[in-house]
């Protein structure tokens, strides 16, 4: 995996804050021998309460109809606070998203936000739209997993691009 090799070559340490990927980004990186030199860990904050308690994301921001748990500002808070709570990390990357199906508006279905922070602050926040279709039902685990995997790949690609550019 190219991004893991980039981290190892540059001796950079990364911490993750994962919501919709549920730890899958960290698990993907952990497949690479020697990655413990670079992977500090991952805050898996799937629920709003975890985002608030573990990463100090303001509850008002999570409950706000403007922001909500899948938003640019929440993802930025997650990235910044994960970095702040992990002094050994050089970079943090956070992800939130709506994998579906659910009670979210159609406009948010498949929406994923990724933020990257380093010592200088929030460097990148981008939104993506998942290409795979929404799961057909609450029991469509295969499609939901496929969407989680798609979001995981988006995070890894965006981290790789950041490492090339910085």
Q: Which H/E pattern describes the elements?
A: HEHEHHHEEEH
The portion of residues forming beta strands comes to 15-25%
Main sheet: strands, sense, barrel? 5 strands, mixed
Overall number of strands: 5
What is the CA-atom radius of gyration, in angstroms? 15 Å
Mean pLDDT: 93
CATH architecture type: Alpha-Beta Complex
Q: CATH homologous superfamily - what is it?
A: CinA-like
Tally of distinct domains: 1
Distance between the termini: 19 Å
CATH third-tier fold name: Maf protein
Strand order of the largest sheet: 2-1-3-4-5
Kindly name the structural category: alpha/beta
* Helix fraction by DSSP (H/I, runs of at least 4): 25-40%
Indicate the CATH class: Alpha Beta
Stretches with pLDDT under 50, minimum 5 residues: none
How many helices?
6
The shape is: globular
Description:
This protein has helices at 2-10, 24-29, 48-55, 59-63, 72-84, 141-165; strands at residues 14-18, 39-44, 91-97, 111-118, 121-129. The mean pLDDT is 93. With 166 residues, the chain is α/β, with parallel strands linked by helices. The protein has a single domain (12-165), classed as CinA-like (Maf protein), CATH 3.90.950. A five-stranded mixed beta sheet has the order 2-1-3-4-5, with helices on both faces. The two termini are 19 Å apart. The longest helix has 25 residues, at 141-165. Helix 1 (2-10) runs parallel beside helix 6.
